Amino acid sequence: MSRILALLLVIAVIVFVVAIVLYWAFYRQRINKQLHSEAPHTRKLLSPWAFSIIAAFVVLIAFAGLTTIMALTDFGAEKVPLEYRNAVYDYRDFSSSQMTGYRSLYSIDENPGYTKSVEQVGDIRFTCFIRNEAFNYYHPSFIVYAEYTGDKNILYRGIHGSFYAPDDRQMASSGSAGGDFEDYICVIGTSTIQSRFELSIYLFDSGIKSEEWPPDDWATVAETITIVIPNP
After folding, report:
1. Rounded to whole angstroms, how far apart are CA atoms 226 and 187?
2. Helix, strand or coil for residue 71?
3. What is the pLDDT at residue 111?
4. Model pLDDT, residue 197
5. Residues paired with residue 185 on neighbouring β-strands, in sequence order
6. How many Å is the maximal CA-CA distance in the chain?
7. What is the CA angle 128-133-136, rounded to 5?
8. How far does CA 35 lie from the centroid of its chain?
9. 3-state helix, strand, coil in the chain (%, to 5)
10. Spatial separation of the C-alpha atoms in residues 108 and 180, rounded to whole Å
11. Which of 29, 32, 35, 176 has the CA that lies 20 to 30 A from 122?
12. What pLDDT score does 46 carry?
């Protein structure tokens, strides 16, 4: 959309300049003709400055009208299939002490209705559970446990997650940092449609060192895993 607006603005400027140049040539030609004519002059021409002001208003009104139409019709916007626009993408992260209530029903060892896999990435061991039964809102699509296996004194945690459609189009993304780190991080998420979830875990042995996000370059530990969520 922004590229199309920029192109329209350039076209509007070109049209304005061309109109001014053509009118200036016409104005000079008509004035010269009238100076050499003995016939009475009954038609008064607009001065080039007056024409410039009027032309500017016309071009601005046309540009505003086109941009309004584009905004109302989503012209030029990237078309996202309706099934992906209406889908639900969500995840939450919890420390070990927050695994209470319904969350206490889930275990790092086994969860009925889920397929388990374990992957060691750097100093983080990811234990993933992907739901293998029909989707419903009472059971998450995936559960991920992230355990730190290194030897540093980790104090804080951060997380960033992104959902992608099968064509690699990013559908949703969010992240946060600053929570206390305990034994592990549990990430519970849902996607109502086939997608890919990219999860980044950040661990810190001291306070926040930078405002840059995501903190891949300054976190004590930064590891990423990709989870494929099948068609529910």
Report:
1. 13
2. helix
3. 95
4. 96
5. 95, 146
6. 105
7. 95
8. 63
9. 30, 35, 35
10. 20
11. 176
12. 77
CA distances to 1, 6, 95, 159 from 207, rounded to whole Å, are: 40, 43, 18, 15
Beta bridge partners of 120: 125
Q: In this structure, what is the dihedral angle of CA atoms 160, 165, 171, 172, given to the nearest 10 degrees?
A: -20
The C-alpha atoms of residue 180 and residue 150 are separated, in whole angstroms, by 17
Rg of the chain's alpha carbons, rounded to an integer?
Answer: 31
Task: Tell me which amino acid residue 28 is.
Answer: R
Spatial distance between the Cα atoms of 32 and 30, rounded to a whole number of angstroms: 5
Question: Cα(198)–Cα(196) distance, rounded to whole angstroms?
Answer: 7
User: What pLDDT is attached to residue 129?
Assistant: 97
pTM to 2 decimal places:
0.65
Ranges under pLDDT 50 in the chain: 1, 76
Alpha-helix runs per DSSP H in the chain: 2-35, 48-73, 82-85
Residue type, 97: S
